[in-house]
Specification:
Shape: globular
CATH architecture of the largest domain: 3-Layer(aba) Sandwich
Largest sheet: 9 strands, mixed
CATH class of the largest domain: Alpha Beta
Helix content: 25-40%
Structural class: alpha/beta
Bound molecules: zinc ion
Number of helices: 15
Number of strands: 17
Strand order of the largest sheet: 2-3-1-4-5-6-9-10-11
Mean pLDDT: 89
CATH superfamily of the largest domain: Mur-like, catalytic domain
């Protein structure tokens, strides 16, 4: 057995190395090779690592990154699957990458984002200490079928985690139903009031009681089917959360501050990224922290310091590939995005969309202060750069001055053409739009590729 483990880890590390040499990132293939050699590898590698699993339809990545900030500030020795490879192959490769050749772990904790459908197997091998389920929404129907299938997959994962403390979103009627089917200790977290003043009209993914099929009533809504649900027929209802957002103090352009009740103690929390969905992500990250018994003030500070202040990181499924959208507004924010792009480990396509409406800022001279030169360091990792938007010509000039190879640069006058060019890509796409460009693109992309994944 030891020989098998050794060979599998060697093969995994070697294939990661060779893929990088060829200018390709990714951990799926190395993980697949390793599991071919030793199908139980993940179980062996996870044995002496205390693992935290994050799953659910929306908000996995942001919740994981916030939890990671808490881990870092708490001084834990940990690793995570930051690359977003959240299926069993990629997760196995992460564990192999953080182990010696004989399988001895180099870190004490693993913070793992797991795909809903993969969570069953991942949990079975890793026997996690904490599992966070963010929510269950209808998503990628072709892959999972009905929303109840997604719920079943997640439930199977939780059932394979007999020792885990399970953190569940109290506002999601589907997620809450997991609590009734497991013996584990549960921490519920939720938002106890509407996040927006006006009710957001959305189609509910779960209008009917999961127990008796009677239509739910709501005392308030936050997003989609999330909120104060109750069934007047059988009495199934939102449980009182252990960690609850009780008041929204300030909803700023770059941050949100809220009052929380954490196990009976009132706490003020500042969340360093905007967007109502990030309130849930922050509460989920805090639930993990509480489940692990980490220092609460350190955790709150980590959420306040969380450094994705620049944008929303929305993720879109575009058929053959995924696109991430990161809003930019100014030099400082754009420089943070450039830093992020400069650290990508996968060969990618970047799309800059520059508009100059009032909401974008009519003066676009700030692009000359952004360190686009740094993108040249990416070399072959940068497949091409598309530019679009009202001021695409200015943007193209700026990138040429930065030293971007003219052959890699393409200008799209029309969003339709841009979207079909992105849609035919197989490499990951990162879109960096200004505000009005983001709004226009998001709408057109939702129309072209269906669904919106606004939480990531
Ligand atoms: Zn009912």
């Amino acid at each position: 057995m030891k020989i098998k483990i050794f060979l599998a880890i060697c093969a995994c590390k070697a294939s990661v190395f060779f893929l990088r040499l060829m200018g390709r990132g990714g951990t799926a293939i190395p993980g697949k090779i390793a599991l071919k050699i030793c199908p139980e590898l993940l179980g062996h590698l996870g044995k002496n690592v205390r693992t935290i699993i994050i799953t659910g339809t929306n908000g996995k990545t942001t919740s994981a990154r916030m939890a990671e900030e808490i881990f870092a500030q708490s001084g834990l020795s940990y690793f995570s699957n930051r690359s977003g490879a959240n299926l069993i192959n990629g997760i196995t490769a992460e564990f192999a990458g953080h182990a010696g050749l004989l399988g001895k772990p180099k870190k004490s904790f693993a913070l793992i984002e797991a795909d809903e459908a993969a969570s069953k197997e991942v949990c079975r091998f890793l026997n996690p200490e904490v599992v966070l389920v963010t929510n269950v929404f209808r998503d990628q129907l072709d892959r999972y079928g009905e929303v109840t299938n997604t719920l079943e997959s997640i439930l199977a994962g939780v059932k394979n985690s007999p020792e885990a403390l399970v953190c569940l979103n109290a506002d999601c009627s589907l997620t809450v139903s997991i609590a009734e089917k497991i013996p584990n200790k549960v921490i519920f977290y939720g938002v106890s009031l509407p996040i927006y003043e006006e009710k957001v009209e959305e189609v509910s993914d779960a209008p009917f009681c999961i127990r008796c099929k009677h239509e739910y009533e709501y005392s308030y809504h936050t997003f989609g089917h999330l909120g104060g649900f109750f069934c007047s027929q059988c009495g199934y209802k939102r449980p009182a959360p252990d960690i609850a957002v009780t008041e929204i103090l300030n909803r700023g352009e770059n941050e949100t501050s809220v009052m929380m009740d954490m196990f009976g103690s009132p706490e003020e929390l500042s969340i360093s990224i905007p967007g109502g969905y990030n309130i849930y992500n922050a509460a989920g990250a805090l639930a993990i922290s509480e489940a692990m018994g980490l220092d609460r003030d350190t955790a709150k500070k980590a959420i306040a310091d969380f450094s994705w202040g620049f944008g929303r990181m929305e993720q879109f499924d575009m058929g053959k590939t995924k696109a991430r959208m990161i809003l930019v507004k100014n030099t400082a924010g754009c420089n943070q995005v450039i830093n992020y792009l400069g650290n990508l480990r996968e060969r990618s396509v970047f799309v800059f969309c520059l508009n100059d409406h009032i909401a974008d800022g009519t003066d676009i001279s700030w692009i000359w202060d952004v360190n686009f030169e740094k993108l040249c360091d990416l070399g072959e990792m940068l497949e091409s750069v598309y530019v679009s938007g009202i001021r695409s010509a200015d943007m193209a000039v700026r990138l040429k001055y930065a030293g971007i190879d003219g052959e890699k640069l393409r200008i799209f006058e029309d969003y339709g053409e841009l979207i079909s060019a992105m849609g035919s890509q197989e490499l990951p796409v990162v879109i960096i739009p200004t505000y009005t460009a983001m709004m226009a693109l998001r709408e057109k992309m939702s129309a072209a590729f269906g669904g919106k994944q606004f939480w990531e």
